[in-house]
Design goal:
The structure is a single chain. By secondary structure, the protein is of the alpha/beta class. 59% of the residues lie in helices and 12% in strands. A five-stranded parallel sheet has the order 2-3-1-4-5, sandwiched between helices. The longest helix has 15 residues. The radius of gyration is 16 Å and the shape is globular. The protein starts with a strand and ends with a helix. Bound molecules: BIS(adenosine)-5'-tetraphosphate. The site of BIS(adenosine)-5'-tetraphosphate has 29 residues, from helix 1, helix 2, helix 3, helix 6 and helix 9.
């Protein structure tokens, strides 16, 4: 099984590239951002809890996202592998992911980390805010999301570097060029 963590700051192209990776490799897409937005749209208790946190650009509590991921792994029938998009976002989530995979005889193959300049992140997210009206894509919240990434999520990179699973990819340029770089990493 091919299990990949797709990592990067907000706006680095995780969701965008995940779609292309699942098309090519037939993996199951597990995006905690999408799962949380579905809970909000469904007005569930979990969604109501998550909504105010996401509107501020803060992280939803670890136990909530870990539980969601665990349910989805167990609900997938005969998967070829998983792509974890936007998860793990804290070292605690990374440790929990390793633990829950190990219990099922699975492991992460590698983590692909998309490297994108700060101004480009802001420009992409502001553009999406204008086009799609996502509540957290406005300048004040984007800046907080980047700060939260630097403070709480960036250390996850060291966690994977420590296990030899980190693979850095230049996330600047066209979507197709970036996808080519990613496929070279996966195919090697
Ligand atoms: P996410 O949904 O994961 O959102 P994101 O980090 O902003 O990135 P996303 O994947 O959507 O965007 P992409 O870079 O593809 O998280 C949202 C919130 O949910 C978090 O702030 C947090 O509150 C909560 N959350 C999620 N997971 C959590 C967890 N594990 N723990 C706790 N809380 C969690 O693309 C952005 C834009 O750039 C798009 O419009 C795209 O079209 C464009 N784009 C992509 N690649 C491009 C390129 N090469 N050139 C030009 N534009 C490009």
């Amino acid at each position: 099984m091919l299990n990949i963590v797709l990592f990067g700051p907000p706006g680095s192209g995780k969701g965008t590239q995940s779609e292309k990776i699942i098309d090519r490799y037939g993996l199951v897409h597990l995006s905690t951002g999408d799962l949380l937005r579905a809970e909000i749209a469904g007005k569930t208790d979990l969604g109501l809890q998550a909504q105010s946190i996401m509107q501020k650009g803060e992280l939803v509590p670890d136990e909530i996202v870990i539980g969601m991921i665990e349910n989805r792994i167990d609900g997938s029938e005969d998967p070829k592998g998983f792509i974890f998009d936007g998860f793990p976002r804290t070292v605690e989530q990374a440790e929990a992911l390793d633990e829950l995979l190990e219990k099922r005889g699975l492991s992460i193959g590698f983590m692909i980390s998309l490297d994108v300049k700060r101004q480009e992140l802001i420009d992409r997210l502001l553009k999406r805010g204008q086009e799609q009206g996502r509540e957290d894509d406005n300048l004040e919240v984007i800046e907080n999301r980047i700060k939260v990434y630097e403070d709480q999520t960036f250390p996850v990179m060291d966690y994977y570097k420590g296990t030899g699973k980190y693979r850095g990819v230049d996330g600047m340029g066209s979507i197709d060029d970036i996808f080519d770089r990613i496929t070279r990493v996966i195919d090697s």
